[in-house]
Amino acid sequence: MKRAVLVLCFLLALAAPVRANGLLASIDELVTLAESGLSNETILVFVQNRPVAFSGSAGEIVRLKDAGISEEVIRYLLDHPAADDDGYIVESPGA
Fold this sequence. Notes:
The chain has 95 residues and is an all-alpha fold. The chain is built from 5 helices and no strands.
C-alpha cells in the first residue's frame, strides 16, 4: 500500500506544472526580433504561439515601444499573461 502511495505521489509530481523559466520567451528576445527588422505581424504570431515572460510593468511596456513593437503586440501581451508570479505557465480556462 505504501508503495502504491509513493508511486502515485511520484506520478502526481510529474504531472505538476512545469517551471517556465526555460520555456518562456523573454522581453530581450522580442526586442531582438524587432531590432532585426521583423514585422509586427510576425512578432504577434510569435507571441501568440510562445508564452512570454512579461510582467506588464511600465518599464517593460516602454522598452517594447522604444524597440518599435506595436501597441497591438503589447496589448496582446497584456491581455494574455503567460505565467504567474512563481514562473508557472498559466493555462487559459477550459484548456
